[in-house]
Design brief:
The protein is an alpha/beta fold and about 230 residues long. The protein is built from eight helices and twelve strands. The chain has two domains: about 1-125, Rossmann fold, CATH 3.40.50.2300; about 135-225, Orthogonal Bundle (Arc Repressor Mutant, subunit A), CATH 1.10.10.10. The chain has helices at about 15-25, 35-45, 65-75, 85-95, 110-125, 160-170, 175-185, 195-210, and strands at about 5-10, 30-35, 50-55, 75-80, 100-105, 135, 140, 145-150, 150-155, 175, 215-220, 225. Strands 2-1-3-4-5 form a five-stranded parallel beta sheet, sandwiched between helices. A four-stranded antiparallel beta sheet has the order 6-7-8-9, covered by helices on one side. A hairpin with a 3-residue loop joins strand 11 and strand 12. It is elongated, with a radius of gyration of 18 Å.
Length: about 230
């Protein structure tokens, strides 16, 4: 996997770029380092890396804005690096579409483990069932990674689609955060279950805006349930 995976590191600290590059290249990853947001957006557009390691605290265009711009045109996996301690910064990045985060100072070994876990998700990201799911308010097609409502398509990131697919595949059943993490993020996910709440919230908001219906129900203390009428 490693020799075929291209990683873009975006950080304005030369020491961080050097450490990250050294560890990743020692494992066979192809690594490109950039120190600013605009160049990262351009390089992603031209070279299409498999994963971007993105510092939030960039000069000029900060990491939140970079992530938002990336998400407008790409489903590239994003792992955020931040020296900030506030949860709001991490949640903002996840809401925009980042897939994981790591707070500085960090262990290079943990960074590598997170990178490998995200890329393993990329390899296994296609849902195993290829049949289309048809509901009253939304149709979900895993072959095209598309979700269509009567008002038009939902604009979902790859991870958001996987969350929707898993919930809809188990319509009427409650899925716990642990089940969602295991099947969407993988058993080796290193983050906390807050990431599940953020992504489910994003999917629920997009469905609500498109259909006017609250199709995802929170079961307090347990997890989430997808509620919509199946169409045969």
């Amino acid at each position: 996997m490693n020799e075929q995976s291209r990683i873009l590191v975006v950080d304005d600290e030369a020491s961080i770029r050097r450490i990250v590059r050294t560890y990743l290249e020692s494992l066979g990853f192809e690594v490109k380092c950039i120190d600013n947001g605009p160049d990262a957006i351009t390089w992603n557009r031209l070279e299409k890396p498999d994963l971007i390691i993105l510092d939030l605290n960039l000069p000029g265009m900060d990491g939140i804005e970079v992530a938002a711009r990336l998400r407008e045109e790409s489903d590239v996996y994003i792992l955020m690096l931040t020296a900030r301690g506030e949860e709001n910064d991490r949640v903002a990045g996840l809401r925009i579409g980042a897939d994981d985060y790591l707070t500085k100072p960090f262990s290079p070994r943990e960074l590598v483990a997170r990178v490998e876990a995200v890329l393993r998700r990329q390899r296994d990201s296609k849902p195993s069932l290829s049949r289309e799911l048809m509901f009253k308010h939304v149709s979900i097609d895993p072959d095209s990674y598309s979700a269509i409502t009567p008002q038009g398509p939902l604009h979902l990131t790859a991870t958001e689609f996987q969350v929707l697919w898993l919930l809809a595949s188990n319509a009427g059943r409650v899925l716990t955060r642990e089940q969602l993490i295991a099947q969407v993020w993988g058993a080796e996910f290193y983050g906390n279950d807050r990431v599940v709440d953020v992504y489910v919230g994003q999917v629920r908001r997009k469905l609500q805006e498109a259909t006017g219906e609250g199709l995802i129900e929170t079961i307090r203390g347990v997890g989430y349930k997808f509620n919509d009428e199946r169409v045969t």
